[in-house]
Amino acid sequence: MIIVKFDYTDGKISSFTMSGHANFAKRGSDIVCAGASAVSFGVVNSIISLTDVKPIIDSGDSGYLHVKIPTGLSAESDEKVQLLLEGMRISLETIERDYGKYIKINLNK
Predict the structure, then answer these.
(1) Cα(28)–Cα(26) distance, integer angstroms
(2) H or E element: which one contains 18?
(3) HEC secondary structure over 73-88
(4) Helix, strand or coil for residue 63?
(5) Which CATH class is domain 2-108?
(6) What are the structural domain ranges in the chain?
(7) pLDDT for 13-67, tens place per residue?
(8) pLDDT at 33
(9) 103 bridge partner residues
(10) Res 61: pLDDT
(11) Residues annotated catalytic, as ranges
């Protein structure tokens, strides 16, 4: 199962961690894994490309990805980053709604 944990600080997403494998289908055919990966990496790439923010990224084995948003952002950058991250949360929750046996979203508010 893929587990995605969003950490909030002062009502805003400060980091997220994704780990595990969906095991919905064999490797290369797993639409749950592909969807979750596309959403998460797409948002990280969007943050880097569309804002002046460079997230702190740690990745590893077993589908592990941890992304922390730096503190002290300008109001404009913070707003853009939060919009992208909340869009990611909503997209992943949509996947969870249809494939809840394979992906779990946790909000640590």
Answers:
(1) 6
(2) strand 12-19
(3) CCHHHHHHHHHHHHHH
(4) coil
(5) alpha beta
(6) 2-108
(7) 999 999 999 999 988 899 999 999 999 999 999 999 999 899 999 999 878 999 9
(8) 94
(9) 2
(10) 81
(11) 21, 33
